[in-house]
Amino acid sequence: MVEWILTEGLTDYRAAEAWMEARADAIARGEAAECIWLVEHPPLYSAGTSAKPEDLTDPDRFPVYHTRRGGQYTYHGPGQRVAYVMLDVGARGRDVRRFVQALEAWVIATLAAFNVTGGVREGRVGAWVERPEKPRQSDGTVAEDKIAAIGIRLRKWISFHGISINVEPDLSHFDGIVPCGIREHGVTSLVDLGLPVGLPDVDIALRHGFSKVFGDTPVDAPFIQATPGASL
User: Fold this and answer.
1) pLDDT (tens place) for every residue of the chain, 232 residues total
2) Residue 90's closest CA among 27, 38, 46?
3) Which end of the chain is more exposed for a tag (fewer CB within 10 A), N or C?
4) Mapping DSSP to helix (H, G, I), strand (E, B) and coil, where does residue 164 land?
5) Please, what is the Cα angle at 163 between 161 and 169, to 5 degrees?
6) Phi, psi of 38 (to 5 degrees)
7) 187 near 147, Cβ under 8 Å?
8) Residue 15 burial (C-beta neighbours within 10 Å; 0-12, 13-18, 19+)
């Protein structure tokens, strides 16, 4: 059974990394259950293993954390729901590509709960929404904005890091980086799309979306309240 853990307030990034790694190790040893951990961070930039220095355009704006997850630069901050995913990919088929596709499908199912049509694009990590009200791209295609990011790491076939969905962050905070190395498109959020949505609404949608995609978690089980440093 997958545990759903919720931490209120803003969680320090390095504390979150330490908590995830310890929990992933405990899962690998068979001493803890798989879990989804929902957090919110203070404003920061994180750099994945593919991050390019030139994509950090304002290095003094917020703290920058180099991490071993996949992907490039991303922003985390208040108003963004981060869902850290500690799952046994080994027991789920040992297919990393399929696992990432399942994470993408989970994000899309979560957005669909708010009648938002998200999609994935070849060569562009994360979830995207079309913005037909904006000027078209130079090639004539409809403008698109990124609404969710995905970046994971595996150790002993246990995943950690995960996904983030923009609910109501300050979108100007993305200006200090080239998000995921993509310059041609912008970023958006559920509130920016005109939806009166808060983090608790997204948490419920995440539970239902996860159940649809992974099929192994009750949607009505209570969230476990925890803080970094609490028992794993």
Assistant:
1) 899 999 999 999 999 999 999 999 999 999 999 999 999 999 999 998 888 999 999 999 999 999 988 888 999 999 999 999 999 999 999 999 999 999 999 999 999 999 999 998 877 778 999 999 988 888 888 989 999 999 999 999 999 999 999 999 999 999 999 875 566 678 999 999 999 999 999 999 999 999 999 986 667 778 998 875 555 4
2) 27
3) N
4) strand
5) 120
6) -100, 120
7) yes
8) middle
Report pLDDT for 188.
95
Q: What are phi and psi of 172, to 5 degrees?
A: -65, -20
Exposed, middle or buried: residue 97 (CB in 10 Å: 0-12, 13-18, 19+)?
A: exposed
How far apart, in Å, are the Cα atoms of 112 and each of 95, 108, 208?
26, 6, 11
Residues identified as active-site: 180
- CA 90 vs CA 28, 52, 111, 159, 198: distances in Å: 10, 31, 28, 9, 34
Q: Are strands 64-66 and 73-76 parallel, antiparallel or unpaired?
A: unpaired
* Burial status of residue 61 (CB atoms within 10 A of its CB: 0-12, 13-18, 19 or more): middle
Pair of tokens at residue 166: 């923009």
* Joined tokens for residue 188: 């958006």
